[in-house]
Amino acid sequence: MARSTILLVDDEPKVCELIRAYLVKDGYDVIIAADGRAAIEQTQRHKPDLILLDLNLPELDGLEVCRTIRKQSNVPIIMLTARDEETDKIVGLELGADDYVTKPFSPRELAARVSAVLRRYREGLKQGEQTVAGDLRLDTEKHEATYLGQPLSLTAAEFRLLSVLARNPGRVYTRLQLMDSAFGESYEGYERTIDAHIKNIRQKISKLAPESANPLVTVRGVGYKLEK
């Protein structure tokens, strides 16, 4: 099996070398970018399997890098954030990041999160099933989604969440149920992560059919459902 390639984007050389050494030990190939512009160039050149993206970067900040990469690729992105950057976490997730790890973190914790995100992404690709819910169609083998016959561009996390809802249209899921069903019970995110991803999905659906009712519905005080 080919080694996965990780793009690590951080402007602190000592941090980069520590993380790189640990990931290489775990069997990954690691490319390092020290600023935002280099991160975008390396993504286009090397097509990494996952990106570790620090938010505080020279040239372009991490949020702008995330926004730019999401226009080109659905590669899984894990943000590296400081404890006092909760707003940035939410914005990053809304821009299409799949997960975040809060600094300071141990290399072991980061490697475990990398493994979990890659596993979820690959499992989604291997399921090989098609799910149809009204005007929504999801192909997990190709990781493709359409709404009203038009392509719906989703990140890996968004695709997994929408797949859960589409398999049981009409059922109301709490945020915790969505987290467990889409990402597993060991997922260490928090409920506002789900809100950010759902907001993204709804906006993308609305762009394809601005005049029609959005099938992704908020059930106030409970959670979310996909209308039948």
Structure summary:
With 228 residues, the protein is α/β, with parallel strands linked by helices. It has two domains: 5-123, 3-Layer(aba) Sandwich (Rossmann fold); 128-226, Orthogonal Bundle (Arc Repressor Mutant, subunit A), CATH 1.10.10.10.
What does this structure look like?
The protein has two domains: 5-123, Rossmann fold (3-Layer(aba) Sandwich), CATH 3.40.50; 128-226, Winged helix-like DNA-binding domain superfamily/Winged helix DNA-binding domain (Arc Repressor Mutant, subunit A), CATH 1.10.10.10. The chain has 228 residues and is α/β, with parallel strands linked by helices. The strands form three sheets. Strands 2-1-3-4-5 form a five-stranded parallel beta sheet, with helices on both faces. Strands 6-7-8-9 form a four-stranded antiparallel beta sheet, with helices on one face. The radius of gyration is 17 Å and the shape is globular. The longest helix has 20 residues, at 107-126. Helices cover 45% and strands 21% of the residues.
Oligomer: single chain
* Overall average pLDDT: 87
Look up the CATH topology of the largest domain: Rossmann fold
Count of alpha/pi helices = 8
| N-to-C SSE string, H for helix and E for strand | EHEHEHEHEHEEEEHEHHEE
N-to-C span: 41 Å
CATH class term of the largest domain:
Alpha Beta
- Give the strand order, joined by hyphens, for the main sheet: 2-1-3-4-5
Beta strand %? 15-25%
Largest sheet: 5 strands, parallel
